[in-house]
Amino acid sequence: MKKTLCLTGVLLSQQLIASDAITIDSIFKHNNGLRSSTTLDFITSGSGRRFSTYPALIGIDDGSVLVDSKKAALNQTFLYALNEKTDLIVSANGSFGDLQYADSNGFSNSTDTNFDSLWLGINYQFDTLFAEFIPSITVQVPLFEKSFYQNSHSDDSLKAFSAKLSLKNYSDPLVSTFYISTTQNFERKIGTKDIKYPDSYSLGLDLSLILNPKASINFNFEQRYQSVLKENARETNPSTTLPTMGLGATYSINQTNSVTISSSVGNSSSSPDSVVSLSLWHKF
């Protein structure tokens, strides 16, 4: 969700005013050179799950007696225009986690710092459809992904893929984005066990209200379904839903930089309690 919230920031421009028609031309014009997005997420949860946030929010319950988790996740994404309609996407992700477990002595803590993943993808934007909606599709695969299960981990490649279809509408002073997405995970060997992480399916709506040439308020609503987790082909964790809703704001610093801060809350016991994100966009 934090990605979709911060992406609305690319629509702001020094030349835009709320009464102007909002177009895709902006300080981060689509398919115009090299752009970057740097996002820092702070995730807190008492649901007993470990969460990953890129390219989608997925919660893993591996049976550990986890009672509380805190995570700071850093994502660095570069987008490079291959042509007028196609972007190449490279995204690197790292994190610092603080986990609290229940044991015979009460509680114990463990911390870890990891380079989590490196994803490569393509975004393609189609021509305008009905009612001025602009469709686009994004497909990504992990060239590297660190997988965790109980006390073991593995370094994997091409064990998943992500796809997202978006419909964007620019209508002064509101920018609307409807999207559906999925992340499919393949079986991987972690320690001595064959693990099938849950697959994820989501339906969401992003709204960005342009207040003036420099600022907007952003809203996000997302319903996510997550399939079962399997250990050695046996279901060990049931399917669940991870609904979230969020609020954020974007400020255009200058012609080449924009910043977004956002916060989302979970609406089920399986969702993280909160995700607070700070994102910086830069156009080279």
Strand tally is 20
Number of helices: 1
List segments where confidence is low: pLDDT < 50 over at least 5 consecutive residues.
Answer: 1-29
Largest sheet: 12 strands, antiparallel, barrel
Q: What does the average pLDDT come to? A: 84
Distance between the termini: 25 Å
Q: What is the overall silhouette?
A: globular
What proportion of the residues is helical, as a percent range? under 10%
Radius of gyration: 19 Å
Oligomerization category of the chains in this entry = single chain
Strand content: over 45%
Order of helices and strands: HEEEEEEEEEEEEEEEEEEEE
How would you classify the helix and strand content by structural class?
mainly beta
Strand order in the sheet with the most strands: 1-4-5-6-7-9-10-13-14-18-19-20
Q: Which key terms come to mind for this protein?
A:
284 residues, mainly beta, twelve-stranded antiparallel β-barrel, four-stranded antiparallel β-sheet, 1 helix, 20 strands, globular, disordered N terminus
